[in-house]
Amino acid sequence: MSSVLLERGRARTRWRRWLYGGLGAAAAVGLLAVLGVLIPLDWVTTLSAVFMYILLAEGWNILGGYAGYLNFGMVTFFGVGAYTAGVLCTQYNVHPLLTIPLAGIMATVVALLVGVPALRLRGVYFAILTLIISFLTQVLVTNLDITGGASGIYMPSLPFDPFTNEQIFYYAFLGLMLLAVLLAFIIEHSRFGYALVAIREDEDPAEILGVRTTWLKTQALLLGAFLAGVAGAIYAFHTSYIEPQGTFSLDISIDVVLMSLVGGLGTWQGPVIGVPLMLVTAQVLRILAGELPFFGSTIPPEFDRVVFGIILILVALLAPYGVMGLVRRVRGRRLTV
């Protein structure tokens, strides 16, 4: 009898947690939707970048967080998506909206051709190989005529005023970010997600126990590549200009990894926490630094690196498993009291 009552109590607790979580998520989405028409242009641009990086980080987290494969090649799929949209739109007159899913598909194809063989490696060797692939892709794009070489590609602009243009990309990134977060939530609570975690904990025993490790890692890589390709395509139209050095910048991959680490690896909440924490903090400090006499109106490009480094050091000292690890530790103490 007592066990039945205990199980009913747990069921009620889970139901309440899901209810409150759903209400909180709906309130947050509604607030973000309203903010798009209330806040000034600078903050619309900043939040668009936040949404884009959450989209990228959730895609990276599928393989890098749940499966534990440190992947520095996310910028490869991002750049391939951006250039796919650019080439199709400017040279083949494909409608911009149609280029976005095609960019995701092309990034997935590249991941299948290049990334899947790389999954034969593990640990630091896999990480180094993804770095090499990113550099080689940048060199290839720089030397191809169809991509415009080092000169890049000028993308068509939307026929609206700057604020309306920014709002359109704000809601585009917001919608895709929500889909990516929902996908990560579903994966985390599915057999697919549990199997990826088994790979992270110890891949060889997982394979012995029947986990199809190669196929699961491939799925994780392809899902992340598709999300990165779509993000790259929208980024290309957002910036109106893409070139190899900026579009394939290693900083993008490093930032995605750092943001996921700060928020908490292997959790759908990690990127949602880590990205705003780092980007919004950097933006606020940049505004404050611009008012200091020794900075003036010009903020050095290394400023973000310094801010990100300080945040990472603080998290490593205070919360080695990220913010979500700290939250779970506090929650666990409450349950034991």
Can you give me a brief rundown of this structure?
The protein contains 14 helices and two strands.
Strand order of the largest sheet: 1-2
Mean pLDDT: 87
Largest pleated sheet:
2 strands, antiparallel
The helical percent reads over 70%
The CA-CA distance between the termini, in Å, is 25 Å
SSE order, one letter for each helix or strand: HHHHHEHHHHEHHHHH
Give unreliable regions as ranges.
Answer: none
Q: Choose one word for the global shape.
A: globular
**Structural class, judged by helices and strands?**
mainly alpha
Please report the total strand number as a whole number. 2
Proportion of beta-strand residues: under 5%
Total helix count?
Answer: 14
Q: Over all CA atoms, what is the radius of gyration?
A: 21 Å
Subcellular location: Cell membrane
Transmembrane segments: 18-39, 45-63, 70-88, 94-116, 123-141, 168-187, 220-242, 307-327
Protein name: Branched-chain amino acid ABC transporter permease
Keywords: Cell membrane, Membrane, Transmembrane, Transmembrane helix
